[in-house]
Amino acid sequence: MPDWKLSARAPLDGHERNIGTVAVAEVTDLALVSAAVPRGGDEAFAAALAGGFGATRPVTGDSTLGNRHAARVLGMQPDQVFILFAPPDPDRPAGTVAAALASAAYVTDQSDSWVILRMTGAGVRTALERICPLDLDDRVFPLHRVARTAMEHLSVIVLRDGADSFLLMSPRSSARSFRHAVELSLEHVSE
Amino acid sequence: MIIDHPLLGPRDAAEFVYLGDACLIDRPDPGDENAARLFHDYLHIRDNPAGEHRELWFHEHGDRSWLVVTRNTLTHEIVRVELARDVALARGRDR
């Protein structure tokens, strides 16, 4: 046995910061796995999703909650969902999904490719409206709504998981730039 | 400019990438006896209308769908947005 071991490191080392009325916190305990539906496999996929995660398949732009692994299924595009969940084995999240879906989808582990920030607080929409091109009004972007967009030229998935709470996912490689963009916007509206 | 996505609603044009004329959907059959001429036309011959123009847009910062957008080149008014998949299926393609 080697006398060293590798340990996982979060993209922003578990960053947390409060700015004005908004709390920004990196989410490090969730795995993200994409599942692409084979052509003609819609029924099998729906059955596998119900059996494996206790979730229904969301339409594109919406998300559903499952009753296993604290799963949330994000409808990303017509033939693809992302599954955000608490992995029983953090080193093998795709294995969990593949086993749960029993070959009804093409599964890719995306966990370590993304940074996830949760923004909560009364001023969160005011801060996001500066950099987010989506309309986040309650009537347009209600609870559980999800969308991919771009902020400051960075690709971002926006998920509303509370009245004043949003999950923002962006590529890990630009995690620090993304944090800077989000926090600068917050600083500008909280002065 | 705002593109009213058929699945997602109005989205900013910055989320999209433009490809070109929607006639690119109708790729010629390489086995056709006139394939050389058909591919020449497919690659190089375009109408340049002053008015309604059908064009392909890709929702890169979105749901990654291809759209057929009918846009007025004089006013930039967007009069119709369809999923390219639906357009292709309606034209007899198998996907």
Features:
heterodimer, A: alpha+beta, Gyrase A, domain 2, 2 domains, 5-stranded antiparallel beta sheet, globular, B: 95 residues, alpha+beta, Folate-binding fold, 4-stranded antiparallel beta sheet, two-stranded antiparallel sheet, 35% strand
Please describe what this structure looks like:
The complex is a heterodimer of chains A (191) and B (95). With 191 residues, chain A is α+β, with helices and mostly antiparallel strands. Chain A has 2 domains: 16-27 and 113-190, Gyrase A, domain 2 (2-Layer Sandwich); 31-111, Heterotetrameric sarcosine oxidase (Alpha-Beta Plaits, 2-Layer Sandwich), CATH 3.30.70. Helix content of chain A is 24%, strand content 34%. Chain A has helices at residues 42-53, 93-101, 124-131, 175-190; strands spanning 16-19, 22-26, 31-36, 63-65, 72-77, 80-85, 106-109, 114-121, 146-151, 154-162, 165-171. In chain A, the strands form 2 sheets. Chain A has a 6-stranded antiparallel beta sheet with strand order 1-2-8-11-10-9, with helices on one face. In chain A, strands 4-5-6-3-7 form a 5-stranded antiparallel beta sheet, covered by helices on one side. In chain A, helix 1 packs across helix 2 (93-101) and helix 3 packs across helix 4 (175-190). Chain A is globular. The model of chain A has no long low-confidence stretch (mean pLDDT 93). Chain B has a 4-stranded antiparallel beta sheet. Chain B has a two-stranded antiparallel sheet with strand order 1-2. Chain B has helices at residues 35-44, 84-90, and strands spanning 2-5, 9-12, 17-21, 52-58, 66-72, 78-83. In chain B, a hairpin with a 3-residue loop joins strand 1 (2-5) and strand 2 (9-12). Chain B has one domain (2-90): Folate-binding superfamily (Folate-binding fold), CATH 3.30.2270.10. Chain B has 95 residues and is an alpha+beta fold. Chains A and B meet through strand 9 of A and strand 2 of B.
